[in-house]
Structure prediction request, 253 residues.
Amino acid sequence: MNYAPLLEPIHQFLLCRTPQAWIDEASKPENLTLLLTDHLVCELKAAQTATWLIRKYVADKPSGEAILAWLKPYEDFIFREHADSQFIHAHKNLTKSIIVRNELPWADDLVEKMVLLIKEELHHFYQVWEIMQARGLPYSKITSSRYAKGLLREITTHEPDTLVDKLICGAYIEARSCERFASLAPYLDAELEKFYISLLRSEARHYQDYLTLAAHISPKDITPRVRAIGEAEAKLISEPDKELRFHSGVPAF
Ligand SMILES: [Fe+2]
Ligand SMILES: [Fe+2]
Prediction:
C-alpha cells in the first residue's frame, strides 16, 4: 500500500515530526508490552472523548445513556481491571441511533462523525487486545502520559471556543497518532507493521473530521487556534519526557 498521499496533509498539519530518539526507544522489544498497553488505553480514550462530545453538546438523555453503555465493558476492563473481557461480545452491538436534543445546524454532522469514530476506535481497541492476547502480553494499569493533559491546558474556558478548541485538540491527537503509526511501523515485526499501517486510513479521516467540525462550528476563522494548539502539541513531542508512552516526547530517563 502506498500511504504517502495519506500522510502528506498530516505532515503539513503537524508542526514537527516524531523524533528518531522516540522511535529508537519505542521499538525496543522490552518496551512492547508498555507500548501496546498505552495504545490500547488510547483507543478507549479516543472513544470516550467522542462520547463525551456527543453527550455534552447534542444527544438527548436516553441516547447519551445508550452510548455510555457501549463503553462500559471496555472501561471495566481498563480502569477496573476486570479479568473477564466482556467487550469481546460488546463490540458487535453498537447500533443505537442517537437522537439530538437541539436544533444546532451542526448537531447531526457531529453525531454522524463521532459515532463512526467511536465504532472504529472500539474496533481498534479489540484488535490491539487480540494481539496482546495472542502474544501472551498481560494487561495491567499504567499511568497516562502528559500529552493529553498538556493539550487540555490549551483549551479556552468559554463557549463556543471551548468546543472548537477541543475539536482542534482532537485533530492533533488523531494526526499525531497517524504520524506515529507510520513512523514506528517499519521498526516493528511484520505483524505489527501490517497492523499499524492498516490503522492509518481511519486515523487520517478522524483528524480530518475533527478539523472539519471545528471549522464548521466556529463562528470565526480557526487558523490562529490551530496554530496555537499546534505549537503546544509540537512542544510536548519535542521536549524531554520522563516516561515512554505512545504520545510521549524525547526519552529522558
Ligand atoms: Fe484508533
Ligand atoms: Fe482515531
Notes: The pocket of fe (ii) ion (ligand 2) is lined by residues 46, 121, 174, 203, 206 (CB under 6 Å).
